[in-house]
Please model this.
Amino acid sequence: MSKVIIIINPSSGREKAGKILPKAEKALGDIYDEVSVRQTEGEGDATDFAKEACEKRFDAVISMGGDGTVNEIVNGLGEQQHRPIFGIIPLGTVNDFARSLGIPLNPNTAIEILKDMHIKESDIGKINDRYFMNVLAVGAIAEATYNVSVDQKTHLGSFAYFIEGAKAMIKKNPFPLTVEHDQGRWMGEAHLLIATMTNSVGGFEQLAPEAEVNDGKLHTFIIKDLSLPFIVKIIPSLMKGEIKGHDEIEYIQTSKLNLSTTDELAVNIDGDEGFLLPFQSNVLHKHLRLFVPGN
Model:
């Protein structure tokens, strides 16, 4: 008997979740013999529900929420021997992972994608004992995203992150950083490090346009200058997806990334506050199977 579990964050998408759920249940009920629904009430619930789906050998697990819900589900699936096929009905503010997979941001259209049963293998990352699917970031701008309130996200969307990031740039204090990667080691001072597994970071798709969800790489940018003249200089390149060519930016493609610093800095993991450096991370190549649009 085939079965699917829907993990829904009822507060996502300006509370659209309740309106979309019946449509999702009906569509999936036409495909699977059993449709179960789990609603999150707090942090970690989606991870627990995803583990349940693995233990009970569900055929598929569907996320209805934003990137935070997706991240929790990935953490529930990451260590398991049986990993159900993962589907996403995006309801969040940015929905980076859905963007990178070409999943429509309209929830009703995303439900239609699930009916096609088209599957793609995708990488995920592991950082210390946690998992992530999109981005790691270190620096004042990365930490500024923690200041974005739910109200800001509701009314401003992804622009809220740019506002807080601009405030943080005023400080622009560099920090000492050691980066170990596939090709060796980089040591120096940086204002910001971004390592992305996909082509969408904060809803912006031109930072690493060549990044693929299953290329086995962390596309890593070490930004050594954040002065206003430099920012003005690189904006045209950033819009064209050519930022990695600048002298004040180190660009590294690597399957592993170990970071350390003498400062007290925390890593931003998929937009949420992680733990203090140092950390060790690596790519788990084609670790998950996901429902995506057909070619």
